[in-house]
Amino acid sequence: MVDADVAGDAGRVVVVTGGSRGMGREMCRGFAAQGDRVVVASRKAPACEALAAQLRDEFGATALGVGAHVGRWADCDALVDRVLDEFGRIDVLVNNAGMSPLYPSLDEVTEELFDKVIAVNLRGAFRLGSRVGKLMADGDGGSIVNISSIAAVEPSPVELPYATAKAGLNALTVGLARAYAPKVRVNTVMPGPFRTDIAENWPPEVLQRFEDGTIPLRRVGEADEIVGAVLYLTGPTASYTTGSTIKIDGGLAWST
User: Membrane-crossing residues (predicted)?
Assistant: First the structure.
């Protein structure tokens, strides 16, 4: 049996959702740099294809861009089918896609907004994790990483639908880890505030508060600072790690 944690001659097949920008983009670059074959998936196909082309040019990697709205069950299945048609297997899945739209107040959250947040942050990860986990368990094994948020354990009123979905994602990690053991490892990375395109919409006072001491490290994270944890959890040195959570937030959660 091939150990899916160890890249073969052609490298592992890695699928990253929400992969075209922000932290997902940096994860794709990290996997490509170590010789993995990378599938960049997100809602906008042109952005995925553009990054895949950059990975091929910069790293000589095998890379594929696929448009997929992970909030839609059919899109999740289509993504898996496309990867299987192209490569025949999936060794690593990173459920990174997420969204947290603003709303004026909790009582003004619409059913449409709530359903959309749950769909993108949780439903898609459930469908992809369940289907890919089964494929891995029936094959040579593999690794799944779910990208959650510290909002899952320290929810605030301004992001409660998102926090609810991420709390569900944490539970999903444990359930999938037990369902598909021993051949499939499933873990969570739980980031705090990171400087991505989403952070461009933060009011200046929010960033200032983080840097003034709310975060023990006195700054927000940079997108590439999540890569090490993801590469670790999907690599051979994490071979006895499953159902676990790694918090990457500069010490913010549980710091007070």
Answer: none
Structure tokens at 183: 């051949």
Nearest to 89 by CA among 157, 2, 212, 149: 2
Question: Rounded to the nearest 5 degrees, what angle is found at the Cα of 140, between the Cα atoms of 134 and 142?
Answer: 65
* Tokens at 86, concatenated: 């192209």
> Residues with Cβ < 8 Å from 237, sequence gap 6 or more?
none
Q: Residue 206: pLDDT above 50? A: yes
Query: What is the 8-class DSSP label of residue 238?
Result: G
Domain extent for 183: 13-237
The string of pLDDT tens digits covering residues 131-155 is 999 999 999 999 999 999 999 999 9
- Specify the number of domains making up the chain: 1
- Please report, as a single letter, which amino acid is at residue 234: T
What letter represents residue 48's amino acid?
A: C
Residues annotated catalytic, as ranges: 149, 162, 166
Identity of the residue numbered 31: F
Q: Count the Cβ atoms, other than its own, within 10 Å of residue 171.
A: 12
Q: Is residue 19 part of a domain?
A: yes
User: Residue 61 and residue 214: Cα distance in Å, rounded?
Assistant: 40
Structural domain contains residue 256: no
- CATH number, residue 73: 3.40.50.720
Q: Of 95, 100, 70, which is closest to residue 190 (Cα–Cα)?
A: 95
User: Tens digit of pLDDT for each residue in 152-162?
Assistant: 999 989 899 99
Q: 243 pairs with which residues across the strands? A: none
Assess if residue 140 is contained within a domain: yes
Evaluate whether residue 38 is within a structural domain: yes
